[in-house]
Design a protein that fits this description.
The complex is a heterodimer of chains A (about 675) and B (about 575). Helix content of chain A is about 50%, strand content about 15%. Chain A is built from 22 helices and 20 strands. In chain A, the strands form three sheets. In chain A, strands 1, 2, 3, 4, 5, 6 and 7 form a seven-stranded antiparallel sheet that branches. In chain A, a hairpin with a 4-residue loop joins β12 and β13. Chain A is elongated, with a radius of gyration of 33 Å. With about 575 residues, chain B is an all-alpha fold. Classes of the chains: A alpha+beta (about 675), B mainly alpha (about 575). At the A-B interface, α7, α10, α20 and α22 of A face α13, α14, α16, α18 and α19 of B.
Chain lengths: ~675, ~575
């Protein structure tokens, strides 16, 4: 897969507009969705009014209250910059997607066998319309193939340059708008409304326009709002206590205390974290139908993985040649080789490689071929007519038998069955309508997959391999791949049953699938990843769609989900831990007139009450800027047990959150005092 | 100092050793199992249920459970209010004491039905024996029973799987009183009588002192009320001076056992929790968290008191025993500090020394213990479910940090649980800071203060922390019996009781309906030292930090001023 280009954090094309957009986001109605920043906005406005009043009537502390007001505006603005940058990065990606979505002409058919198509604009197509797409046509909208077979270039969506085969009736009947047919023709029934295609959804998602808050984000928002209320109570009741103590605190100082105590750091970065998480998902070529699905992916306990294509190579590989009695081994190997020369599928290439290794010499063989019969998805046969006149064919057993026009002998049937039973795939090789023997294609476990599963196990995710193989074969592959469990002789019903059983135990289950018969299971699973190549039914049932149609993507999705939560949790902890230092900076400054002895709490030795308060406010604003890269990138996630993760993140963000502001405020105070601005 | 520390250790060992088996017993009681008291009590229980028309096997949805709690508490309050207002017409009033004023009766009735037992009155000069026995002592039992019942229901919510109900309030209440509070009280009453505490219905005795002055020696049915006041974390003394009076607390042994009784049931709830959720480590972790916070407070109080008052350093004052102002000589600093810590950690509120006379930092620790919401052991039952609200938030933070929707005991902690816990969290700031701030500026309130300067503020903060935390201990020096404070304190007590109970029952109801996911290496353990540390930190930062500004102007200002030789 070609990776989508990484957008640099300092890319001016993103940062520049973000600085501008952040201004427009100061609109109170937009801010009201975020309680913490809304409170900050309100008190920033209030402190500005107080500053103006002091300016006119000549109050005390005009210089410092003006600066505090300015920094409060910066605090809100910086939070908006963070959000705008996250959105901007998504927009940049959306723009490149939109380029593929331009209006295209479409050949609309009145009925499936209408002779003459009518030329219309792709925009006018409605679900249920039929269109004909021929070579070099752009597929005008998402749909399902009802007739025909074609290879389709989907690189605009997936980044994968090799064309893929799409055909009617199977599990690979879906086509996506914006992709291009490179051979043959297909008739497509449109399934998406204008403006609701996958591409549209993807664009909406990366732009954050359709972003709904995820469940944990909602819960966190409630906690942050609650803390804001608590600190409001703390600050509002402080004045009476100070009045009791025979003093009075300027209101702008109380505002400063409030803003530094409420969790502005996480409040300001929360939506940026969410948008960036979605962006990471899009970068991995996955469309989430809801944010809930992404978060659920982080919670997954059980991962159902199809054996083929996920755990083993999608294409099986030649592992042995079994000649029929009376056929020489070398004869059959050569025939298999020559018949597979024009088979460009991975299976075909593996037969060629395996045969050459068997023969022990570099037999080219092409010089013997008079006419090559390339593999086609229709015939499921490849072969060669040789210069000596003999015809070689190789392919699926029923297809080859049909070519030969014979019924299989008992020996052949036994051989084919034994290979099938062991989990392998039998292919027949025939010469001049006579079967020579059987090629044994076998599953090869992907290298590195074992380590991947060990990683998942550490994260607490159990992997279950799902396969149609018999239990014996399944067990062998399961052991080789290192999965925790397997479901053999799987049918869609048994798959569904397994998911229900795991869910009844309170576990969250993820699976991926592509066929229509996967749809019930996809819908039942907490996280269902549908392959983009899959049927519309499957895509409708899943809550995530993988454009690369790569089943191993599930693992990546789990990581993205986890990283999203960890980023939020870590920054929340950091934000709360910061409050300790802020208390020690501001309280002595506030109380020094009431009780001069309370200067003992000024453990940082800050220059003056005014500089202490200003420094805390400046720190509070700057820390948002400093953490934007972390929010956009996400907190680093290394698979480990929860206990290890918790210890590590607590040390970094909890303890760090306690210490960093002490240092930061002290340094800012030194600068403020050196500059003599208060 | 060494004997003091030895006694602290002995105290910890005995409380733990008794709480552990009691926790197992409690688990059996609330799971409806048979106990060794069942042969005697089961028939009584059945008769009571039949008479009241309660079907013990009928579970209640959390809303119904909460309504039952509220209805019962309202009924209790009305009954107690009537008794107090009409006590001059009721029997057992040998001193012919008059009725209580409306605001005092309101305050006292609220106080005893919320298990606060704040006493704005002096017992021996205000309450008839009937009011003490039929009014206050009855509430000592049932208000404690309500807390225990609610806690049992909430714990059920944490381990139930996909259930709609939390148990039956009437059954839980009956069992709390019948199987736990009554038997323990009988044992403790007998012990106290043996130690010399009066238990009679006689009129007060007049005596001529050595100096020839006339002294009235009050008495009455004290032992039985003292037993339940300690066991049920009530704390309302029979006498005004509470457990410093020799009749309430005659010997060092009675003092020690009464202190054990303060923490016994709250501590046992930790082990009961472990037993009921089938994982003792979970209960032990919460016990350890409470223990660490308790120890921290004890160290702060004891070290402040034993050091004496630096202002006296230059004066001819003997301070080798530490700061002895307001303390009984027979208890000394060690027993006074331990009692002060235990009584404010648990929401007991009985005192054997005057906290008003503690050193500033010595009084800070008891205040903090109340302000974090009475969750360090706390009230019987109520302390534990208060702690669970902190656990919910800690789990939420920790869960996010490991990249999963947070889970506690396999239950997902989601928006609803967070929202309800946050509501409970607003109680202490509202009660202590909100009502405290009013009290600090309103002239109608300020006349109640005995001291000026930061100590006066401490008196206000202490009083409202005590009321909102449903503790009931008094700082002394604070003239609480005025209509303003009687009313506002009553509101604070109601807030502290029911705005915890209802949201936490709702949390339990919501959790009970959820599936329980088995733990995996992806769920972080909620029993290890890491979780305990995090829980302690969350309690101190979220619970404690809120009050830091107010405390800075009270005890901390007093402390730093004292060090610089400034007095008020």
């Amino acid at each position: 897969m070609r990776k989508k280009p990484e957008i640099s954090l300092l890319d001016w094309r993103v940062t520049g507009p973000a600085l501008k957009v952040a201004f427009w986001k100061l609109n109170p109605r937009a801010m009201a969705r975020n309680p913490v920043m809304f409170v900050t906005l309100v008190v920033a406005a209030l402190s500005t009014l107080l500053f103006l009043r002091d300016l006119i009537v000549g109050g005390e502390n005009v210089a410092v209250s003006g600066q505090i007001a300015a920094w409060l505006w910066f605090t809100v603005y910086f939070a908006n910059v963070a959000e705008a940058m996250a959105e901007g990065r998504g927009k940049a990606r959306a723009d490149s997607l939109r380029a593929t979505q331009s209006e295209t002409p479409a050949r609309k058919l009145a009925s499936i066998d209408a002779p003459e198509p009518e030329m219309v604009s792709s925009r006018s197509l409605k679900p249920g319309d039929l269109v004909l797409v021929s070579v070099n046509d752009i597929v005008p909208a998402d749909g399902e193939i009802v007739e025909g077979i074609a290879s389709v270039d989907e690189s605009a969506i997936t980044g994968e340059s090799a064309p893929v085969i799409r055909e009617a009736g199977g599990d690979r009947s879906a086509v996506t708008g914006g992709t291009r047919v490179v051979s043959d023709w297909i008739k497509v029934r449109i399934t998406s409304k204008p403006g609701e295609s996958f591409l549209d959804r993807m664009i909406a998602m990366v732009e954050g326009a359709e972003r709904q808050k995820t469940p944990n984000e909602i819960a966190l928002n409630i906690l942050l709002a609650g803390m804001t209320i608590i600190f409001l109570i703390v600050v509002v009741t402080l004045q009476p206590f100070v009045i009791y103590s025979g003093a009075f605190v300027p209101v702008v100082f109380l505002i400063a205390l409030l803003v530094t105590l409420i969790p502005t750091t996480i409040g300001g970065l929360l939506s940026a974290i969410g948008i960036a998480g979605m962006d990471r998902l899009v970068k991995a070529n996955v469309i989430a139908k809801s944010g809930r699905a992404v978060e659920a992916a982080g919670d997954v306990d059980v991962l159902l993985l199809d054996k083929t294509g996920t755990i083993t190579f999608g294409a099986r590989q030649a592992d042995g040649f079994e000649p029929l009695p009376g056929v020489a081994a070398k004869d059959m190997t050569e025939a298999a080789l020559l018949a597979s020369l024009s088979d460009e599928t991975p299976e075909g290439r593996s037969i060629v490689d395996f045969a050459r290794k068997q023969l022990g010499r570099a037999l080219d063989g092409t010089e013997q071929v008079a006419e090559a019969i390339p593999f086609s998805a229709n015939t499921r046969i490849s072969g060669a007519d040789l210069k000596d006149g003999s015809q070689l064919r190789k392919g699926a057993s029923d297809a080859v038998l049909r070519w030969c026009g014979i019924d299989p002998s008992p020996q052949l049937r036994a051989l084919v069955e034994s290979i099938a039973k062991s989990g392998g795939t039998p292919l027949l090789v025939a010469r001049d309508k006579q079967v020579l023997g059987v090629i044994h294609l076998k599953d090869i476990v992907k290298p590195g997959i074992r380590e991947r599963f060990a990683e998942l196990r550490r994260m607490g995710v159990r992997t279950v391999m799902v396969t149609g193989d018999n239990p014996l074969t399944a067990a062998a592959i399961a052991a080789e791949a290192g999965v925790d469990d397997f479901l053999a002789e799987a049918t869609p019903e048994r798959k569904l049953e397994l998911i229900r059983k795991e869910q009844a135990e309170g576990k969250l289950v993820a699976m991926c699938g592509d066929g229509s018969n996967d749809a019930p299971a996809l819908a039942q699973a907490d996280v269902g990843v549908a392959m983009n190549t899959g049927t519309p039914a499957a895509k409708e049932a899943g809550n995530l769609i993988d454009l690369d149609s790569d089943p191993t993507k599930l693992i990546e999705i789990v990581l993205v989900g986890k990283q999203l939560l960890i980023s939020r949790g870590s920054l929340t902890t950091f934000s709360i831990a910061n409050d300790v230092a802020k208390y020690f900076a501001i309280l002595p400054a506030l109380f020094v007139t009431a009780y001069p002895a309370l200067d003992a709490l000024n453990v940082m030795g800050l220059g003056s009450p005014a500089s202490a308060i200003l420094s805390a406010v400046i720190f509070n604003a700057l820390i948002i800027i400093a953490l934007i890269p972390l929010a956009l990138r996400g907190v680093k996630y290394q698979p480990a047990t929860a206990a290890v993760l918790l210890r590590r993140n607590l040390l970094i963000y909890g303890l760090g959150g306690l210490i960093v502001p002490f240092l930061g405020i002290k340094v800012i105070d030194l600068i403020v005092n050196a500059a003599g601005i208060v | 100092m060494a004997p003091d520390i030895l006694q602290f250790i002995l105290y910890a060992v005995i409380v733990t050793a008794l709480a552990w088996p009691l926790g197992f017993y409690l688990a059996r009681v609330y799971e409806g199992g048979t106990t060794w008291l069942s042969p005697v009590l089961a028939p009584v229980e059945r008769t009571l249920f039949t008479l009241a028309g309660v079907r013990p096997d009928q579970g209640q949805h959390w809303t119904r459970y909460a309504l039952s709690v509220l209805a019962f508490s309202l009924g209790s309050w009305a009954l107690l209010y009537a008794i107090l207002r009409l006590q001059h017409l009721l029997p057992f009033n040998p001193q012919a004491l008059g009725p209580l004023s409306p605001d005092l009766a309101f305050n006292t009735a609220v106080s005893f039905t919320t298990n606060t037992n704040w006493q704005a009155y002096g017992g021996e000069t205000t309450m008839s024996y009937f009011s003490q026995m039929a009014g206050l002592t009855v509430q000592n039992f049932v208000s404690a029973g309500v807390g225990m019942a609610v806690c049992a229901a909430i714990i059920r919510g944490f381990f139930a799987r996909e259930q709609k109900t939390l148990g039956n309030f009437w059954v839980d209440l009956t069992r709390s009183v019948l199987y736990v509070l009554l038997p323990l009280s009988i044992v403790l009453t007998l012990f106290l009588v043996w130690q010399g505490v009066p238990q009679n219905l006689m009129a007060y005795v007049s005596a001529t002192t050595v100096e020839g002055a006339q002294q009235t020696i009050s008495q009455g049915p004290a032992a039985s009320q003292i037993a339940i006041k300690q066991l049920g974390t009530n704390g309302g003394g029979f006498w005004n001076a509470n457990s410093s009076v020799p009749y309430e607390n005659p010997t060092p042994l009675s003092n020690f056992i009464e202190m054990v009784a303060i923490l016994l049931i709250p501590a046992a709830f930790c082990f009961m929790f472990g037993k009921m959720v089938r994982d003792m480590r979970q209960g032990a972790a919460i016990f350890a968290t409470m223990g660490i916070l308790f120890l921290g407070a004890l160290v702060l109080t004891y070290s402040s008191e034993i050091g004496g008052n630096p202002a006296f350093a230059e004066l001819p004052v003997e301070q080798s025993a530490g700061n002895m102002e307001g303390k009984e000589v027979r208890f000394g600093v060690g027993n006074s500090a331990l009692w002060a810590t235990a009584t404010t950690a648990a929401s007991n509120g009985s005192v054997n020394s005057m906290h008003d006379s503690f050193m500033p930092l010595g009084a800070l620790a008891p205040m903090l213990l109340m302000q974090v919401g009475e969750v360090v052991f706390g009230g019987v039952g109520s302390g534990f479910y208060g702690m669970l609200s902190f656990v919910v938030l800690t789990v939420f933070l920790a869960g996010l940090m490991v990249g999963r929707t947070p889970e506690y005991l396999g239950k997902k902690i989601e928006a609803r649980e967070v929202k309800l816990s946050v509501i409970a969290f607003l109680v202490m700031p509202l009660g202590v800071l909100g009502l405290g701030a009013l009290a600090a500026v309103l002239p109608i309130s300020l006349s109640s203060l005995q001291e000026a300067g930061p100590h006066g503020l401490s008196e206000i903060i202490y009083a409202y922390s005590s009321a909102t935390g449903n503790n009931g201990s008094a700082f002394a020096g604070f003239g609480a019996n005025v209509p303003y404070h009687n009313t506002m304190q009553g509101i604070a007590m109601l807030l502290g009781r029911f705005v915890y109970i209802v949201p936490m029952l709702a949390v339990a109801g919501s959790l009970a309906a959820k599936k329980s996911a088995p733990a995996s290496s992806g769920t972080f353990p909620t029993h290890g030292p890491l979780f305990i540390t995090l829980l302690v930190a969350v309690i101190l930062i979220l619970g404690g930090l809120t009050f830091f500004p107010a405390l800075a102007l009270g005890p901390i200002a007093e402390h730093v001023s004292m060090l610089s030789g400034e007095t008020f």
